[in-house]
Amino acid sequence: MEIFGRPLPALLSQLLLGLVNGSFYAILSLGLAVIFGLLNVINFAHGALYMMGAIFAWMGLTYFGLNYWVMLIVAPLLVGVFGVLIERLLLRHLYKLDHLYGLLLTFGLTLLIEGFFRSFYGVSGLPYSVPEQLAGATNLGFMVLPNYRAWVVVASLIVCFGTWYVIERTKLGALLRAGTENPKLTEAFGVNVPLMVTFTYGFGVALAAFAGVLAAPILQVQPLMGSNLIIVVFAVVVIGGMGSIMGSILTGLGLGVIEGFTRVFYPEASATVVFVIMAIVLLLRPAGLFGKEK
Amino acid sequence: MKLNKICAALAACGLAFGMTAASAQKLSDDKIVIGFVTDMSSLYSDIDGPGGVEAIRMAIADMQKEFPGKKIELVTADHQNKADIASAKVREWIDQGGADVIIGGTNSSTALASAKIAAEKKRPYIQVGAASSRLTNEDCTPYTVHYAYDTIALANGTGTAVVKSGGKSWFFLTADYAFGHSLEKDTGDVVKAAGGTVVGAVRHPLSASDFSSFLLQAQNSKAQILGLANAGGDTINSIKAANEFGVTKNMKLAGLLMFINDIHSLGLPTTQGMYLTDGWYWNQSPESRAWARKFFDKMKRMPSMLQAGDYSAVTQYLTAVKAAGTDDADAVMAQLKKQKINDMFAKGGYIRADGRMIHEMYLMQVKTPAESKEPWDYFKVVQAIPGEQAYQSLANSKCSLVTKK
């Protein structure tokens, strides 16, 4: 059976691979959406923090003998703490100003963080292999899927929908959303909004670090790995609608799949297809697919 | 009193004579200024970059004794892989900084732009880091020397060897820009000439985020060899994914442009058995080993072919200045094209009329983890390819300096 001249198994396998890549987009854009939703900060440092997650995974293994599973928890925690510091010491002072200042600050932070790691480790990358438990591949009939890639999809779906559940369905989430809508009134009810903001930022960047650790075994671990990805992730957030939690998850997965199909039909365009879609969406629905018009 | 004065005058004269004898070279501004422009901070900075600067400093330190009382200056810049920055720097150094020679670093587009400026200003331009064979073909100039390697030599080395060892059918994974296209084309030509076939190619964008889709397409082609016509991070990510998806079980990988740094970052378990072509390997001779250890002490990593090439290029340039007795560009270029190059980088190397430095290239195979005895002990030299075979012959050259009209 063929669709548009391509055999069905080939398309199925691309669908699956698209989901794998989409998982990364989903976690990263989710973090950005959470941060933008509550802080109104366009966190350009997201890519650099994702890279920190991956490099911490490598450092843990190399210097302290901590394996992948330990670092999957520890690296996001460390980066989360780092995020809390950034928010407390720097970002805090910019909330009253235009979005642009937050963007410039986080862009500057990106350059600093990347430069710092580059001066130690260079750019050609650090070796990190797939954890033993997930080595090998499973034959699905239409393709051979490495077990690790399957794990990436599962792990990111759990994290993404867990986050969505907490924000949309629990009391804590309700407070967070209230803090976004009207911080003054929420504070009047005795909620410590500044603290909530701090931890939200910490959580958002911890998500980035989690994606970084997930990526370490399959991508080149190097200081510039975040810059290559962050632009696409911003496009995903814009398409999904700035600040929309579910929007960023679904758009992330969907765009991963579209990109995967583009790689079969016209590989040269696979890097641009996301931006073409972004342009179309912005023309037709300026607030994004899932965004609310304000 | 009078006697004293005469004595002093004589002494001064003698001193002056002595000084003229010591400084037989006629140097512009009484010093030699070397300009080095390369990628210092992004994707190509490990294979050249700050390590290349250190290599040049080592060359200057070793050659300083040949120029007593004269200053040899080095100026460097980061071109950020942008051709306009590279050419602006080169122009500034020559016009205002009195640069006598430009050493060119990585990235072919910056190299082609800088070579034009150097030729216009009549200064030697020794290009080490960039691969494009256009530098000594369509875009050759009387002042360009292409020193370490080029795309044709890479294609000849790996392409021929792999076809000979039974890899007849090829599929290419190609970076979708000028460099990738020319590497794919040059290698495809070599493969066909050796009796192999090219069954297809897939072009990926530069710095692609994920290679698994492309690799599945390669796998479905049923070719024996997967030729990687890309570089740096793209090559590394392709190899990682190829291992993960089991592509390496039924296809052999051939990295068409790989440096020792790439192997170091991937580790031997993932790369063992791969073929690649290189112009120099730190463990190839006693001289290269001795120099590499000195480099290692400073940089904490072994030098790549480019860094060794930077050292050699500067050494040869300074040797030519000494022999010519001047840093005048035309005299030095004539001397460079006359002298034999015998140092830790090349044996019996020479610079042809089109500017191509001809020297032995090596087909390497990556060792297995068991074969490797120490860190950075990564390659087995499978075959030394004589320079005349590795590089394009003058008969096929498109360089206007050598083609007969």
> What percentage of amino acids of chain A are in beta strands?
under 5%
Largest sheet geometry of chain A? 2 strands, antiparallel
* Major beta sheet, strand line-up of chain A: 1-2
Name the average pLDDT of chain B. Answer: 89
Mean pLDDT of chain A: 88
What pattern of helices and strands is seen along the backbone of chain A? EEHHHHEEHHHHHHH
**Fraction of residues in β-strands of chain B:** 15-25%
Helix content of chain B: 40-55%
Main β-sheet description of chain B: 5 strands, parallel
Structural class of chain A: mainly alpha
Low-confidence stretches of chain A: none
Strand order in space, largest sheet of chain B: 2-1-3-4-5
What sort of overall outline of chain B do the alpha carbons produce when their principal axes are compared?
Answer: globular
N-C termini distance of chain B: 75 Å
Q: How many helices of chain B does DSSP assign?
A: 15
Rg from Cα of chain B: 23 Å
Q: Spell the H/E element sequence of chain B.
A: HEHEHEHEEHEHEHEHHEHHEHHHEEEEH
Termini gap of chain A? 47 Å
Q: How many β strands of chain B by DSSP?
A: 14
Q: Which terms summarize this structure?
A:
heterodimer, A: 294 residues, two-stranded antiparallel sheet, B: 405 residues, alpha/beta, four-stranded parallel beta sheet, 15 helices
Describe the protein.
The complex is a heterodimer of chains A (294) and B (405). By secondary structure, chain A is mostly helical. Chain A is 71% helix and 3% strand. Chain A has eleven helices and four strands. Chain A starts with a strand and ends in a 10-residue tail after the last helix. The model of chain A has no long low-confidence stretch (mean pLDDT 88). By secondary structure, chain B is α/β, with parallel strands linked by helices. Chain B is 44% helix and 18% strand. Chain B has helices at 2-22, 49-63, 83-95, 108-120, 151-164, 178-193, 212-220, 232-244, 247-250, 260-266, 268-271, 286-299, 305-324, 329-338, 387-390, and strands at residues 31-38, 71-78, 101-104, 125-127, 144-146, 169-175, 197-204, 225-229, 252-255, 275-278, 350-351, 357-358, 361-366, 379-385. In chain B, helix 2 (49-63) links the parallel strand 1 and strand 2 (71-78). In chain B, helix 13 packs across helix 14 (329-338). Chain B is globular. Chain B starts with a helix and ends in a 15-residue tail after the last helix. The model of chain B is unreliable at 13-23 (pLDDT under 50). The A-B interface holds A 10, 13-14, 17-18, 20-21, 115, 118, 122-127, 129-130, 137, 143-144, 146, 148-149, 218-220, 222, 224, 228-229, 232, 260, 263-264, 267-268, 270-272 and B 41-47, 176, 202-205, 207-210, 212-214, 216-217, 220, 232-233, 236-237, 240-241, 244-246, 259, 261-262, 264-267, 269-270, 301.
